[in-house]
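Hey, I'm writing a tutorial for new members on how sequence and structure tokens pair up, and I'd like a real worked example in the thread rather than a made-up one. If someone can provide the structure for the chain below, I'll link this post from the tutorial.
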Amino acid sequence: MQSTIHIPTTNPPFNSYTQWQKHNKFFSLIPINQNPCFQTLSNPPKSLKTSFQFDFEDEKIRKEFNPTSPTLLPVVIRQSDGVSRYVWDGSDLKLVSVDGKTVCFGGFEDLGDGFRRLFRRCSLGVRNFLFPREISENYFEYVKWKFLHRVFSSALQVLATQAMFRAIGIGYARSLPSAAALNWVLKDGLGRLSRCIYTASLASAFDTNLKRVRFSTSVVFSLSIGVELMTPAFPQYFLLLASIANIAKQISLACYLATGTAVHRSFAVADNLGEVSAKAQIQTVCFDNLGLMLAAALNVMLKNNQRLQACLPFVVYPIFTAIDLYGIYQSLKHVHLQTLTKDRLEMIIDTWIQFRYVPSPAEVSKQEGINFIPSKGRLKWPIRIGGLNPKCQIPNTSMMAMQSLCRDDFYFVCTEVCFHGIERTEGILLCLREGASTTDIIMGVLQACYIRERLLCKTGILEDGDGLNQEWLKLAKACKRSAREDMELLNEKMVELAMIQ
């Protein structure tokens, strides 16, 4: 199992009633009722740059007390419903809204009719109800595909539950109600037991392979709905089919709950993880209700034809399932995780070695993809973090690396040879000492990546022979020296992108 390096990216909260920020001669005032957690911005928002072209000049402030035209004061208030600015008209201080193109000065000019203002208020109300105030740029794309996923998944669940009720009515027409209740309790109990076993066995995979595990369990969830839809056709096997479906559902639910925090953390940009999680629950309830309404509408349309109503789930199941899984796949593509795993660190370092720059979290996420089918073993000289496997052949270079360790070393890099059946695989092993810091881990992976790059460029550098040990020592020392030279600059670039602190 891969090791996970969790790098916190939250900023310490700044508690105050107001916060004044001066950016490009603007002062930005953020009221405390908007969000008690503040984030210092390196640049002013683009909306403030384009709304007014204003320069802070002393002669404008020392204007006459009764100017002939309204004076724009260099104070801007950013709120969830827009941007406002203070204006002095000679007698009163007014707060006017900034439209991006037009400024409304009290009774000068109306921005629109009543319907337009009502529509704007309603849209802002919906926005504030469903979305957090501070989120990353890719959040809305994620919610768009989440909407597609939740609506059709909820509709399928309604149809599946309806099918199971129909199966109970067919298969247990002569039995006591307690027998049906016992079967229902048994299937739920087996499902929850399987959920505990699954969560305990794959706990660390939720961090290292989050996207792959989540999409895989989503496929399992969709298949479980298909099994539930089959219960009316085989009512005598209701307990078996319902238990299998419920086990799959509980496994999917365990994965959803375990990975939810990491997904929400990737969208939180102002220490508002709690708000993002709360809004996610609101979205889920709203989208699920829309799916319920869709399923109810389909049943109402076919209420006069029992045969078509019975065939409805089998007709819509493949269509709704395809849309559901496509929505999940697309939404996961917009999740830029904040945890630095071994695979992501390899991608960053390989890019650094080739192009001398550190990719952003969005670029790493795009390169990583969903990774539905593991690519283990496809690369030459794969890097593994762990300990020496005594069942495998231990080369002399491993013993040399261990003999050269000193008290200040927190890792060592060596080669390893594994056999998968009759196939012989050579790889690079990074062994970490207990108490190794994040810097030590990055340094070790950086050295291992340098070694892999030079091994791939010079294919015969470690062939068996008398000079093998000397060649390995030279290679390891040269790569360690290169890693130390790059470590400071690489660390600075990763800190700038908030990958580490």
